[in-house]
DNA sequence: ATACATACC
DNA sequence: TACTGGTATGTAT
């Protein structure tokens, strides 16, 4: 039975084109009528044709999946079931209901702002955006089926009286800043997801709040109304733009056990419960911005997100922190509501007869055979109502891009100049953030909506217009050539830059240490497996230490700079251009049938680009004095650092302190540095361990999955193993994150023990570098042990120099 | 490393 | 007339 597979093309296709009515404010619409209008308006357009094509591709994927499903044997299924149960048990064990996570989301944000600022709009269906694309719509308009991501011209067909207001980002950003100030009062580490949305961890706030006096929980109405006797609730509503007719409404604080009641007047006292705290936050948002927000309260992020949608607009919903409540809540939840499951996943799951989370749970064995490991793990977590209980710190950006849609562009000169413009914009943005990246990607969309990306990675990071354009132009040229004599008929072009080398400085090596300094957590905040890890006491402690150490280093640097004001120092290499001469792609750049523009090209760029060398490969920057040391020899560099350290401590203590004190000052620095490293590494390694074994320390989830041998997976969809695995081996091969040596054990405890030893070894090294004769943790079994714990980054290839460390390993400990 | 697809706002 | 733009991540090669 081909149950679920779209019986007709039309029907299946609707899922892609049709109105998405699972969002708030869309209940009880005339769906069929709306869909008919959407389809009729779209039909025959290039966009429509392309969507059809993409839908076919999804259908093919589904067909393939169904074939795969048909080949599954009982045996396989049973085995898979066992596997799923194992993982499931481990996940269950890791369930943490102790956190109170809140997801806040402004109601129809852009539209609400525009309505607030233009009362004329209040009673009208309106949307923000353009005839080509809408960003959001108000609740009036939603009744007509008008919604975000719908082109304005279609929206107009649905609702001819629709008023479309152009975007005004600066305004939204300003409002966003206002609400973020409020968020920070409840969770200083809140995570903004966009201008109008954020996750907060209320746990700590609530603890504090229990001891707060009423006065601290009292908040005033911003505008004193003429009729002060009115009930607070009513007043709140009057302040808000008319977004809701039949909205659940936040304000009527249910007279909960703690609901301290709102006295009539110009203020309200909020209780100490979660609900009260969240209600208070929303109240303050409304008072401050005259805009309403909705919120979800749950024990993890995934659930909080779903909850915030539940009583939208201007409402909130709390899911109690019990396993039972969570499981009940999940049962009938449509999979599409879950963050991360979009149109396509939904359609594939539907094809398997899965539309709700309970189905998901029932079909896990099957899903584990048909989907990638990451995918089915996600499904499994969702089906158990699990999600992240830790709100990760805002991570550093990984890419930056700019793209533009326009009327057909086919002339080469115009394409080139547009490309240049994009590069200019991008370079400007890069400059603002002081970024440099190694990979430049060109994105093209032709008039048939077909998208292409072409990328090139340079040996060194770049940032300037000329550097970026030099690459983008070559990529574009190549595409033009490949298509010729036909022209490229473009409707969109974009340029992206990624693979950032470093933030403030250009040295890749510098990144870790500077990032560490700034974030107080080094790069580990970037690591993918960080997400579930709660910050440890240890890393908190680091902050203080590292500041004292690095602050002194900074002071030292300033001193030196002052002293050497006249000397060359900075200038020479610092801003040297950075394109390597190997950059130019081997494509036949000249000699072709291109208009002169292509070969004419800014030769200065070329010249500039090809003559400049990778400066970062020539020098290292001292973490103490922050000056460049012109050497590639790490021993030399380490000697320099040692000198700097002793200089620094001597200078600091100069005259005022005795020799012994100075001695101890030096020692203190060293110890601090060691401690910083120790803690940081511990933190990192902990997290690396948790990649193998993600759930808070114990019980192996990933381990199980690592052990999993691909069961079915003939063609694609092979389970990705964490480590390359000898095909015969009976288990995973663990690689120590510290010494990078392969540990051939299947026992996680043994492996963890090894890692701990390795870490301790490092600390010992750090503390008594001169005296220590290495105390090697005996690798459980190692392939090429020199006995030294020389670390090597698993992912980012370090410059060779770091690898080829001599006996002194100060540096590789320092950086990374 | 590159290309493409999916997802989110 | 007209179907975005910015970022991240997963999957396949």
TrEMBL record:
Biased composition (Polar residues): 600-613, 648-657, 769-786
GO biological process: DNA repair; DNA replication; error-prone translesion synthesis
UniProt keyword list: Coiled coil, DNA damage, DNA repair, DNA replication, DNA synthesis, DNA-binding, DNA-directed DNA polymerase, Magnesium, Metal-binding, Mutator protein, Nucleotidyltransferase, Nucleus, Repeat, Schiff base, Transferase, Zinc, Zinc-finger
Cofactor(s), names only, from the UniProt record: Mg(2+); Mn(2+)
Low complexity bias (residue ranges): 247-260
Record bears the keyword Ribosomal protein: no
Catalytic activity: DNA(n) + a 2'-deoxyribonucleoside 5'-triphosphate = DNA(n+1) + diphosphate
Name listed for the protein in its UniProt record: DNA polymerase kappa
Species of provenance: Astatotilapia calliptera
Encoding gene (name): POLK
């Amino acid at each position: 039975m081909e149950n679920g597979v779209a019986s007709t093309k039309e029907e299946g296709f609707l899922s892609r084109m049709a109105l998405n009515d699972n969002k708030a404010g869309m209940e009880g619409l005339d769906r069929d009528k709306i869909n008919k209008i959407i389809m009729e308006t779209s039909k025959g357009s290039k966009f429509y044709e392309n969507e059809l094509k993409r839908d076919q591709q999804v259908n093919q994927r589904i067909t393939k999946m169904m074939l795969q499903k048909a080949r599954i044997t009982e045996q396989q299924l049973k085995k898979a079931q066992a596997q799923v149960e194992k993982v499931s048990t481990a996940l269950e064990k890791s369930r943490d209901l102790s956190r109170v996570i809140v997801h806040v989301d402004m109601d129809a944000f852009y539209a609400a702002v525009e309505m607030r600022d233009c009362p004329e709009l209040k009673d009208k269906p309106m949307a923000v955006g353009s005839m080509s694309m809408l960003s959001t719509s108000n609740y009036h308009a939603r009744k007509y089926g008008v919604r975000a991501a719908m082109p304005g011209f279609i929206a107009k067909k649905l609702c001819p009286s629709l008023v479309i207001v152009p975007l005004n980002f600066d305004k939204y950003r300003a409002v966003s800043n206002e609400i973020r100030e409020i968020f920070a009062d409840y969770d200083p580490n809140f995570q903004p997801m966009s201008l109008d949305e954020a996750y907060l961890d209320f746990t700590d706030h609530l603890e504090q709040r229990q001891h707060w006096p009423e006065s601290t929980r009292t908040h005033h109405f911003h505008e004193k109304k003429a009729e002060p006797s009115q009930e607070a609730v009513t007043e709140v509503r009057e302040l808000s733009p008319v977004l809701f007719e039949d909205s659940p409404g936040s304000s009527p604080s249910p007279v909960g056990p703690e609901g301290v009641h709102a006295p009539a007047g110009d203020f309200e006292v909020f209780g100490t419960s979660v609900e009260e705290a969240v209600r208070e936050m929303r109240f303050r948002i409304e008072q401050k911005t005259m805009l309403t927000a909705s919120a979800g309260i749950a024990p993890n992020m995934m659930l909080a997100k779903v909850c915030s949608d539940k009583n939208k607009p201007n409402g909130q919903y709390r899911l109690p922190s019990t396993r039972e409540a969570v499981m009940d809540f999940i049962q009938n939840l449509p999979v599409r509501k879950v963050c991360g499951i979009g149109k396509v996943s939904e359609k594939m799951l539907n094809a398997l007869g899965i539309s709700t989370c309970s189905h998901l749970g029932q079909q896990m064995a099957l899903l584990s055979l048909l989907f990638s490991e990451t995918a089915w793990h996600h499904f499994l977590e969702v089906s158990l109502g699990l999600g992240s209980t830790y709100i990760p710190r805002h991570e550093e950006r990984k890419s930056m891009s700019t793209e533009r849609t326009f009327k057909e562009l086919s002339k080469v000169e115009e394409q080139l100049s547009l490309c240049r413009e994009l590069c200019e914009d991008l370079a400007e943005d890069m400059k603002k953030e002081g970024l440099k990246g190694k990979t430049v990607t060109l994105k093209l969309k032709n008039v048939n909506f077909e998208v292409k990306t072409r990328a090139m990675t340079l040996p060194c990071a770049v940032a300037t217009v000329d550097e970026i354009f030099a690459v983008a132009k070559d990529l574009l040229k190549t595409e033009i050539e490949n298509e010729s004599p036909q022209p490229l008929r473009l409707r969109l072009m974009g340029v992206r830059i990624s693979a950032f080398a470093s933030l403030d400085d250009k040295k890749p090596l510098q990144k870790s240490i500077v990032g560490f300094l700034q974030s107080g957590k080094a790069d580990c905040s970037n690591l993918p497996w960080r997400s579930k890890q709660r910050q440890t006491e240890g890393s908190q402690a680091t902050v203080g230490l590292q500041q004292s150490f690095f602050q002194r280093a900074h002071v030292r640097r300033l001193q030196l700079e002052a002293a050497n004001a006249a000397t060359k120092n900075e200038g020479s290499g610092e801003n040297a251009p950075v394109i390597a001469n190997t950059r130019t792609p081997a494509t036949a750049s000249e000699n072709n049938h291109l208009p002169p523009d292509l070969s004419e090209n800014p030769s200065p760029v070329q010249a500039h680009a090809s003559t400049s060398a990778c400066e970062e490969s020539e020098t290292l920057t001292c973490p103490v004095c922050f000056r460049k040391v012109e050497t590639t020899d790490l021993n030399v560099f380490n000697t320099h650092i040692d000198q700097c350290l002793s200089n620094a401590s001597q200078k600091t203590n100069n005259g005022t302190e005795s020799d012994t004190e100075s001695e101890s000052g030096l020692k203190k620095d060293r110890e601090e540095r060691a401690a910083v490293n120790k803690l940081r590494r511990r933190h990192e390694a902990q997290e690396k361990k948790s990649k193998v074994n993600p759930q808070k320390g114990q019980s192996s989830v990933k381990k199980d999955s690592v052990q999993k041998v691909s069961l079915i997976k003939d063609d694609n969809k092979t389970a990705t193993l964490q480590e390359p695995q000898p095909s015969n081996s009976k288990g995973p091969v663990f690689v120590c994150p510290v010494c990078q040596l392969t540990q051939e054990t299947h026992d996680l405890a043994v492996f963890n023990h090894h890692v701990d030893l390795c870490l301790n070894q490092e600390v010992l090294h750090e503390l008594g570098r001169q005296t220590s004769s290495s105390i090697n943790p005996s690798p459980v079994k190692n392939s090429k042990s020199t006995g030294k714990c020389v670390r090597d980054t698993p992912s980012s290839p370090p410059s060779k120099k770091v690898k080829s460390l001599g006996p002194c390993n100060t540096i590789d400990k320092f950086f990374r």
